[in-house]
Design a protein that fits this description.
The chain is α/β, with parallel strands linked by helices. The chain is about 20% helix and about 20% strand. It folds into two domains: about 375 residues, Glycosidases (TIM Barrel), CATH 3.20.20.80; about 100 residues, Immunoglobulin-like (Sandwich). The strands form three sheets. It has a ten-stranded mixed beta sheet with strand order 2-10-9-8-7-6-5-4-1-3. Strands 13, 16, 17, 19, 20 and 21 form a six-stranded mixed beta sheet that branches. Strands 11, 12, 14, 15 and 18 form a five-stranded antiparallel beta sheet that branches. Helix 7 links the parallel strand 8 and strand 9. Helix 5 crosses helix 6 and helix 8 packs parallel to helix 10. It is elongated. The protein starts with 20 loop residues before the first strand and ends with a strand.
Length: about 500
């Protein structure tokens, strides 16, 4: 996820951000269904969603309901969990360990409340037919390098002290998680946005301008070994890079291209991961926000439009786009950048269509399911890429994501006298919601030959009545000239066009 620069030694996160559950949908653009579960079509991408409350902040019953709805209503085929190493194993050599007189880290404990909740989500997701992807992040205090602690002291994004022991502990941690969830987790991702300071600090030092990428390669080796030992069938995913960074030596970030180049320059790199991932957001404050737009700085930014700059670096590796979205309210993490809800729905549709053009891309993840808006910190800590508002109200993007939307149109006559009554009627529906949809805002539009569409009425679809189903609408107009008519649910669905002649 894109975050502002420059850096102060503090990180803005939702209180439970280390347990963010990212619901992922992935589809195969190339390859067989056996190799890539969830294939929807030769050139389509399955759809994913996210909500940071789904592992830690709701009851088990609500968790089960939410995951089931994600699969059955939104049609997701993959889920992505972010699991914090620092939270799972907080105690290490600096803390007395009754189980090990030599002061080694406490053994992995799957019975903590944190891991119990994560395990419940994985089990439920697997039962619902969702494919699970887990991303690791956060260095424990005992494994971090004090040389890079700021005035505020240790932070979980501070660099790992890459001793042989710490790298071995990280490998053991990865192995323990992979072994516990063997057969339930489809893929594991090594770190989240490791090319920016808010995930791995520092990115460069006076002695090594590629300090962050070089450290990441060491961690990737340990990760790869641990996952393979714990579950040889699980995919290992590298990258998960943020969309922007610096092309020059810079303490705060590394461009996705430079980060990937360091990985590729590593001897034996191809054996370290099975797939590569990236977060192709349009960076905050960009004047070009639409999915197909060219980036302002293609050497430092990788969005959907120039994704090929990464694809060609690893031409034989599948690509996972493990975060994407558009804000519908201003927030600090995206530099205030946001669009209205109708535009968000349009951009969602266009993003999936554009990403499907790349044969290597196997998944695109939408972040989030529901907006996160902490009272009093709406701008500083809020995230508004959700398909629902924080209150649970569906945005137009929710219906676009789910698909199966339809808006019919019937005219009472093909020709009428001037200023006579013409009735336009039909129904708005969504297959995933079981049929008709009440109280949806619809606009009635008309267009004379050679002229643009204009809105002449705004109405709401009807609720169910004693003799009618929900989603129906009926409106009367008085044509003054022959014209075309249509009805639109802006951002979601548009009816067919009907021509009515005026005699």
């Amino acid at each position: 996820m894109n975050r502002p620069e420059p850096r102060s030694h503090s990180r803005l996160r939702p209180p439970f951000a280390t347990t963010i559950l990212l619901v992922v949908a992935a589809c195969v653009v190339a390859g067989s269904a056996a190799a890539w579960p969830g294939v929807a079509g030769a050139r389509t991408l399955a759809r994913g969603i996210a909500d940071p409350t789904l592992t830690q902040s709701i009851s088990p019953a609500d968790q089960a309901t939410a995951l089931h709805e994600i699969r059955s209503e939104l049609g997701a085929t993959y889920v992505r969990f972010v699991v914090s190493w620092a939270t799972v194993q907080p105690n290490g050599p600096s803390v007395p360990n009754p189980y090990d007189p030599y002061g080694l880290p406490l053994p992995y404990d799957p019975t903590t409340s944190y891991m119990t909740s994560v395990a419940a989500a994985i089990t439920q997701a697997h039962a619902d037919g969702l494919k699970v992807l887990i991303t690791f992040q956060d260095v424990p205090l005992w494994a971090s390098n004090p040389a890079y602690w700021g005035t505020a002291g240790y932070q979980p994004y501070d660099a790992l002290l890459p001793t042989a022991a710490n790298l071995s502990y990280f490998s053991d941690f990865c192995q323990a998680i992979a072994a516990q969830f063997s057969g339930q987790v489809y893929a594991y991702e090594c770190w989240n946005e490791p090319n920016i300071y808010l995930s791995l600090y520092p990115q460069s030092t006076a002695h090594d301008h590629n300090f962050g990428p070089h450290l990441y390669v060491q961690m990737l080796r340990s990760f790869s070994k641990g996952i393979h030992l714990g579950d040889p069938k699980a995919l290992r995913v590298a990258g998960a890079t943020a969309p922007r960074g610096s092309i020059n030596p810079y303490a705060y970030s590394t461009s996705p291209q430079r980060f990937a180049a360091v990985i590729k320059a590593t001897k034996g790199w191809s054996s370290l991961f099975d797939a590569y991932s990236h977060h192709p957001y349009m960076p905050g404050a960009s004047p070009r926000m639409w999915p197909e737009a060219r980036t302002a700085n293609p050497k430092a930014i990788v969005s959907l439009q120039n994704l090929s700059t990464l694809l060609k670096m690893f031409p034989k590796k599948p690509f996972f786009l493990t975060e994407y979205g558009y804000q519908t309210s201003a927030c600090q993490a995206f530099g205030g950048q946001h669009v209205d809800q109708v535009t968000q729905a349009n951009y969602l549709r266009r993003a999936y269509a554009f990403a499907a053009r790349y044969k290597q891309v196997k998944m695109l993840i939408w972040y989030l399911v529901k907006d996160f808006s902490p009272p009093g910190y709406e701008y500083q800590l809020g995230f508004y890429t959700g398909l629902q508002t924080a209150d649970g109200v569906y945005k137009p993007a929710w219906y676009v994501f789910a698909g199966g939307d339809h808006l019919s149109l019937h005219t009472s006559a093909a020709a009428v006298k001037r200023a006579a009554r013409l009735t336009l009627s039909g129904r708005v529906s969504c297959t995933s919601m079981g049929g008709g949809l009440a109280a949806k805002p619809l606009v009635v539009q008309s267009r004379r030959a050679g002229r643009p569409w204009t809105t002449i009425r705004t109405i709401l679809s009807q609720a169910a009545g004693p003799l009618s189903a929900p989603g129906l609408y009926s409106v009367q107009v008085r044509p003054k000239a022959s014209a075309y008519y249509r009805v639109a649910w802006l951002g979601v669905a548009t009816s067919r066009t009907s021509y009515v002649a005026v005699k």
